[in-house]
Amino acid sequence: MRLKLALFAAATALLPPTMGLAQTPAAPAAQTAPKPAAKDAPTAVEGVTIRSDSTAMRTSIDSRSYSVSNDLSARTGSIADALRNVPSVEVDVRGNVSLRGDANVTIMIDGKPSNQFTGEGKGDALMSMPADQIERVEVMTNPSAAYRPDGSAGIINLITKKTMKPGTSGTVRFNVDTAGRHNGGISATRRNGKLTLTGDASYRHDTQDAQQLIRRETLDTASGKFLPSTQDAAVDNAGGMVNLRGGLDYDLDKQNRLSLELRGRRIAFDTDIDETYSALNAAGAPARAYVRNLSGDMTRDNAAISGDWRRQLRGADHLLTTHLEYEVTDFQRDGDAVTRNTPGATVYEHVGLGVDQERANFKLDYTKPLPKDVKLKTGVDFELSSNDFTNFGASGATAAGLVTDPARTNRYVYDQDVYAAYVTYERPFGDFTVQGGLRAEQVQIELNDVTHGLKADNSYFKVYPTLHTGYRLSDSQSLSASFSRRVQRPGAQDLHPYRVYIDPYNYRQGNPNLKPQITDSYELGWQYRKGPTTYLATAYFRDIRDGVTDVVSDLGSGVFLTTRENLGKGRTTGLELVANGRLTKALTYNLSGNVFQNEIDAANLGFAGARSKMTMSGRANLNWQATPKDFFQANIFSSGKRLTPQGYREPFKMLNLGYRRKVNDKLSFVVTAQDAADWAREVIVTETPTLHDRTRRIANIRSVFFGFSYAFGGGKPRPEQFDFSAGGPS
User: What's the whole-model pTM score?
Assistant: First the structure.
């Protein structure tokens, strides 16, 4: 597979710009933005990545874009911190993201997917990556067919900062908190004639101390009683992340631009876990116990190279783009543990997991305006990916006498190739605009359990329709309606039936019979926008088939297995409200709320009838420009009780505060307090006829950061020239 990826990347790279590309219609890449609309003007129906906007929020018929430039927590925190302040988005204490209550979210950077936000360590990536390089967060709950259908909840697109200043310019930043965390970096741009060079370098040192308490009761069939057990763990994580990026844009002429980007990221953490376990028998006396100490380390290296060619053809908005990317990710986790059992002997262990990922992607997109303001877009999107998993385990009576455990040692290779083509057609009828789209995908999957010599393959063809409509009621009000079909494909390890060792009483196992989850999503929206005031109301409905969920089962003797199963079906009906405005000349607000009814039919998992629960979540943000140089900010968010197939998740909330002092146009100081009220908790409850489980996690994310940023450079105004992100000459 790796050879196939390399040959694919090399062969495609050798294609000259004129070799057949102009003959293949395609739609503009997701990272290409149209000419900016006038302030408060109706936006186009098409889904676009918004490069810049001075307003806090901007909407189109298939997306909402939120500025984080004035979010003070984004100045000193991680991407996870910035996402916590975005409407519709929730982030738990482990960095897991959900959108309107659905955790099946696709995260992109500048319209491009990345392996760093998938698989092992994706939460660590979000909690470690600095947010100060992000300008906007684009949320698409019903993306058009021009985007991949992956992620039943939708897409979160992280839009990085871009500078268009001529000459040399950049920013230096540094932040430190009271708990020993610190982060900093430098960003720079050099524009000279046809050539633009950009670069970013940053480092973040973090500590992620946490506590986990699991209280379980399992039904003992012999006595008819529930037998209790307690597992308590203190986790001490310390490490950092290095982020490097370099880019080049070169204008061959007014119609052609070539781009090259290199990026590399490294996350490295050391972990110490002190864990105790105790269980009682039917008589209430101690049955077994252990004290376990584990020391380990985790590294995640990600590197990518990409190239783009964009050609402006005759006529406005007539554009051809190609994108080629190759990405590799290396994840390693190793640990040494000693478990002192009562009763029983002391056991020494070494456990490890390695994941090597490769991904190659080629996109060709074409957009052409037609008479009567019609827009036709079409394109192809090919992605080849390979995942190589290696589990290792050894144990013994002494640290020097470890023997490889065949039950914990396994190599597994998973390849997935996706070949897609799409088309969208948009046409206005006066104040009414309609856009229809269709995406067709051929998926080929190969599984190979190398250790046991077991192979399997699967291929399927599916189409994903989308429909977006908009109606302009007045200069300040509009209506919208949309539909999209989304898919959540099982992950590589979700399909592998190998039992992964977590600790002496917990295992995790995949399910080769999993089906992809299909979601039909419907939305109705109303928008009011006048000056700084914006009101949004969106009613939505999701019909889910074959949803994938975790299921916990008791293997006996206090050992539990977590596996993945398909639900029969599910439905979500909700209403989301968003309001942005100005209370006074110096005081602005951002409010959002989401209330939804979640219904789960888990009859195929042994539950009688459907279960449903009403959930409410919301956030409030208050900004005060006390003086031209002093800016204060407070934001709070809360998520209500959430239904799960085997139980529920308790409410979650957080309060963040911030202050910025602008010394001059180049220098500013920032102070932020994250989780100022120390509210961050995660509690998950499982309730079945044979199992009661309450898991409580507390992450030490409370902090006070002090930081500064300094802008340097500038330059003389340059002559106006064609900008590929703003459309082209007619």
Answer: 0.83
